[in-house]
Amino acid sequence: MNHLLISIAALCLAAFAATASVAQSLTADLVITNANVRTMDAKRTIARSIAVLNGTIVAIGTDADTKAMIGPKTRVIDAGGKTVLPGFNDAHVHFMETGAQLSSVDLRSAASPEEFVQRLKDFAAKLPKGRWILGGQWDHENWKPNNLPTAAMIDAATPDNPVFVNRLDGHMALANSLAMKLAGVDKNTKDVDGGLIVRDPNGNPTGVFKDAAMGYLERAIPEPSFEQKSENALAATEYAASLGVTSVQDMSAGTDIGVYQELMRQGKLKTRIYGCSPLSDYKRWANTGLQYAFGPAMLRVGCLKGFADGSLGSTTAWFFAPYLDAPNTSGLPQAEVTTTMKQNVVEADKAGLQVMIHAIGDRANATVLDYYENAEKLDGPRDRRYRIEHAQHLRMQDIPRFGKLKVVASMQPLHAIDDGRWAGKRLDAERLKGTYVFRTLLDTGAVLAFGSDSPVASLNPLFGIYAAVTRRTLDDKNPNGWIPEQKITVDEAVRGFTWGSAYAEFQEKAKGTLEIGKVADVIILSDDIFTIDPVKIGQAKVLTTIMDGRVVFEAK
Predict the structure, then answer these.
(1) Residue 2 — pLDDT band, cuts 50, 70, 90?
(2) Residue 267 lies in a domain
(3) Which of 34, 56, 81 is at the close of a domain?
(4) Among 65-79, 186-200, 457-471, 479-493, where is mean pLDDT lowest?
């Protein structure tokens, strides 16, 4: 037996030597030297140099380890001691909408109703008559008083352009009178399941439409052309590269996959995309026979997104108890959650597709966990990686269920420090204990996959890392952190934007860490976010972004 072990050891050493010899004989396409490489692998290895060939990492180690791989055509990047990380992977984004918002009116930071109206007026003045004004991302919680906007506020500022601008959470939007006229909406228009038309005391629509009711206006908006969508997608991928985002999981890709495919064909796509379709579309995908994460490394499909409720900011997140500031409601369950969702989850799962469902309120989360548990009992055990998107407000008894059921908590840390400014007026102290519970979810065995929900919040992952680590609200009123016991470390936050997000899309063996054989998605930062004051993490910049071994962004 000892002779056998010695022989096996000798063979292993010979194989290792042969592999090392081959590596030394390679000429790399790109080598990063003089770096603080944080691989984010299981051992949290720190290295000095990375070599890349044909889009794949072929060596990691010291500068001496990669020196022999530098040839006359090798691009060498001296990192100057800067921190190197795996490319960020945004686990929850609306990519096409992100690109569209880059060229739309910016209402997010409007600090008052007056500024809100003025920005719309200035933007409308630059447009041809009849052009719809969309996007916006307004937030009435920035205003005092924080009353909802109305069509009457903006009609005089936008007489020739239909307006339908959404609140930053995407769960309610404001139309002007022209837009409502074009959509055929008036006093006699009925509410719909899972939606609400806000009305004045006489029953007339004020212009605000919540969740499913937004469909009345959306049906009247002209479908953008393929060329317009291509421009939006190109803007989004360029922007993502500038922020070190090399992968995204597009929650609303739907039928826009063809747009991304064309950009990929042209060599303009700088972001790996996992494109999701509505859960109700499961039959279309099931009929093709494809399963989760199907396609090439740059563009894959097979994920299905459902909605259980709305948002806290729109008082449409679904809770067991009423809102403190709106005691007449506990939120709005989406129509599908109370009708078809339970069976759709079972059927989609049976077809081998990946299911991910938006749930924000505690009742929505509990219900989705129940549906997942039911499907697993019916379909049997396998690696399915169910996901809950947002998972913002949880009952304490539901938190351990994520780890037990192996449900990925796909969360957006930046939302926490935004909502933390005003969530206390909607939820009592007991419910707030289960709010954005990053620490407890990790401690009970859940995988965190971090994203931005852009354009709802900034696409910049460094802002998200800052939020998860400090939990300092955007109004600076919680310098020690809002619900500080739920803070996590920088390492855990970075892991959420890299390995965790890769795991959430079944790609942890291909990306998410810097290891030999994995794709060369690499970023160089201006600062070492692991050692600087956490308060300054959001001020760090991405200096270089490498995707698939290609430099796709360099800071000027």
Answers:
(1) very low
(2) no
(3) 81
(4) 186-200
Same domain, 61 and 100: no
Q: What would the pLDDT profile of 152-162 be if each residue is shown by its tens digit?
A: 999 999 999 99
Q: How far apart are CA 534 and CA 323, in angstroms?
A: 34
Planar angle of CA 475, 248, 398, nearest 5 degrees: 65
Query: What is the rounded distance in angstroms from the CA atom of residue 540 to the CA atom of residue 450?
Result: 18
Q: Does 106 lie in the same domain as 150? A: yes
Same domain, 159 and 199: yes
Residue with tokens 């953008």: 224
d(CA 314, CA 306) in angstroms, rounded, equals: 18
Residues 6+ apart with CB under 8 A from 288: none
Contact 112, 64 (CB under 8 A): no
Peptide bond connecting 128 to the previous residue in cis, omega within 30 degrees of 0: no
The verdict on whether omega for the bond into residue 455 sits within 30 degrees of 0, i.e. cis, is yes
Higher pLDDT, 185 or 14: 185
Q: Residue 14's pLDDT band (boundaries 50, 70, 90)? A: very low
User: Tell me, what CATH number does 57's domain have?
Assistant: 2.30.40.10
Q: Is residue 532 part of a domain?
A: no
In sequence order, the 6+-apart residues with CB closer than 8 A to the CB of 550 are: 55
Q: How confident is the model at residue 422 (pLDDT cuts 50, 70, 90)?
A: very high
Give the whole-angstrom CA distance, residue 440 versus residue 162.
46
Does a structural domain hold residue 509?
A: no
Tokens, residue 206: 């004020």
Report the domain count for the chain.
Answer: 2
Question: Do 48 and 130 fall within a single domain?
Answer: no
Task: Report pLDDT for 19.
Answer: 39
Instruction: For CA atoms 416, 534, 556, 60, give the dihedral sign.
Output: negative
What pLDDT, in 10s, does the model give residues 26-37? 899 999 999 999
Range of the domain at 197: 96-218
Distance separating alpha carbons of residues 124 and 139, to the nearest angstrom:
20
Spell out the alpha helix ranges (H) of 102-210: 113-124, 151-154, 177-183
Nearest-angstrom CA–CA distance, 53 and 519: 10
**Residue 59: inside a domain:** yes
CA distances (Å), origin 509, targets 169, 271, 501, 545? 33, 18, 12, 21
Of 163-167, 297-301, 425-429, the poorest mean pLDDT is in 163-167
